[in-house]
């Protein structure tokens, strides 16, 4: 995602098997830069894996997922939304070598109709100096919240906090993420 326009939702039209790799991800990798606690509705894009429903003229090509127009993942992989937490995450961003090409890998079988969302694998997060953990606190209503230990801004989801610390917090000054145990 490269802008603050409403996010396009990318969902599976058929089962995507666990372990399937998509990519490589083209361009400058800034997963999570525009992540928000809020979910803005936007257009939907369907992607397919083998077997494809016969009403759609798409197919598995050399082990690649293709969209409803038959476009390869390289044309739409950047539209996959960053996961706000591990419960909604279906893909993880991985690299075979530090600084190498980045791919998305299905963490589990993704069911038809399910949205594709992605977050960093732990090794890739460490490579990019993205916080790996975020410890929740509870607000006055007892709801989980995540607090930036630099500027005290509050977030509903852990990955929103991690993205904030890495991309936006003016007070972190590029320091690695600290949680309250430090």
UniProtKB/TrEMBL annotation:
- A Pfam family it matches: PRDM2_PR
- Return one GO MF term: zinc ion binding
Its subcellular locations are: Nucleus
C2H2-type domain mapped to chain residues: 146-168
Query: Does the record carry Metal-binding as a key word?
Result: yes
- PROSITE patterns according to UniProt: SET (PS50280), ZINC_FINGER_C2H2_1 (PS00028), ZINC_FINGER_C2H2_2 (PS50157)
SET domain: residues covered:
1-121
Cellular component GO terms, alphabetical: nucleus
GO terms in the biological process aspect are: regulation of DNA-templated transcription
> Which of UniProt's keywords are assigned here?
Metal-binding, Nucleus, Zinc, Zinc-finger
Instruction: Look up the domain of life of the source.
Output: Eukaryota
Cite the InterPro entries for this sequence. Answer: PRDM13_PR/SET, SET_dom, SET_dom_sf, TR-Histone_Methyltrans, Znf_C2H2_type
Identification of the protein by name = PRD13 protein
Which species is this record about?
Bucorvus abyssinicus
Q: What is the lineage of its organism?
A: Eukaryota, Metazoa, Chordata, Craniata, Vertebrata
